[in-house]
């Protein structure tokens, strides 16, 4: 097995994106860290009019379809000799339009995530230590940026340990929700399917992780057989945690008391200790998403503009200043809210990044340079691919009609 892995590793080329080896656990928890972020914290608020059964249904459906889409990207990556990012894969297997669309989706989604993280972290730290919101955002930004600057390996290690702690905290808080004085389990059965489609957009946003896959493939280039299982396990953990967060929130608070960052409501309803625990969890969730998303955005920019290297300080530092400076400015000036950032990113970016990998994997099977030791098999069947196109394409149409007031908005 070791010789086979070394042989496969020698097949791939670094290019501008440097290969930094990741372990199986680091890849799993990179997926967990990316999935448990702003989307997770916005699910309860976005689903408050529809109800817990609807958000649970969509979290399961979206989780499965996103995993399949991630597998498409994984197979396309493993069929490509040079280590490139999602826009590069789209360019190679779809064409220049695909490259531009994927790059825009990555940028829009990443910046929307960062806006949501800065909004949420600023509000939470402000309440925890009684400082201005902008200062709370800055307190969150500095250590997060330092870890991200150090690169993919540092992000993988940080995500692993903090994600493990996040899982423990969410389990504690969920148990406490059932024991709280304000607990009312009957709230979990309330539902209004009128709001089903816009709630799907938030669920889709929570899982967006296709753009992370090429980085993870780079990290496991020495042992590509482990890529698919690590994505599966990471996605299962994400799904369970994503369901537990709105479940606990709905149990302890009525719909009209749920705030945009749900853990603030969650903690207040359970008690003082839970207020701090829930919001520490929220900060960790944002941190573990912030790092891989920012790292991947940097790699995508380097790949898209064909820059020399993603580790060169003269390239990496200016990119970080721009990609962090824009969302920081939009946040502290109040130009974009937490839930707006989540919703519109979930609608458009998720649709692009779910649909384009279909064309990528189909063409990679025809024109790829390598026959990998793993592929997604029948998951790339025309029926499954059509289902993804219809469902994610429909959300874009709904969002446009909802914005025009023709169909009901989610909240």
UniProtKB/TrEMBL annotation:
Entry's localization field: Cell inner membrane
Membrane topology: Multi-pass membrane protein
Superkingdom classification of source: Bacteria
Main localization, broad class: membrane
Keyword annotations of the record: Cell inner membrane, Cell membrane, Membrane, Transmembrane, Transmembrane helix, Transport
GO biological process: amino acid transmembrane transport
GO CC entries: plasma membrane
Keyword Transport belongs to the record: yes
Transmembrane stretches, start-end: 27-45, 51-73, 94-118, 124-149, 161-181, 193-212, 232-253, 273-294, 315-336, 342-362, 383-407
Pfam families: Trp_Tyr_perm
InterPro entries: Amino_acid_transport_2
PANTHER family: OS07G0662800 PROTEIN, TRYPTOPHAN OR TYROSINE TRANSPORTER PROTEIN
Protein name per Swiss-Prot or TrEMBL: Amino acid permease
Native source organism of the sequence: Peptoniphilus faecalis
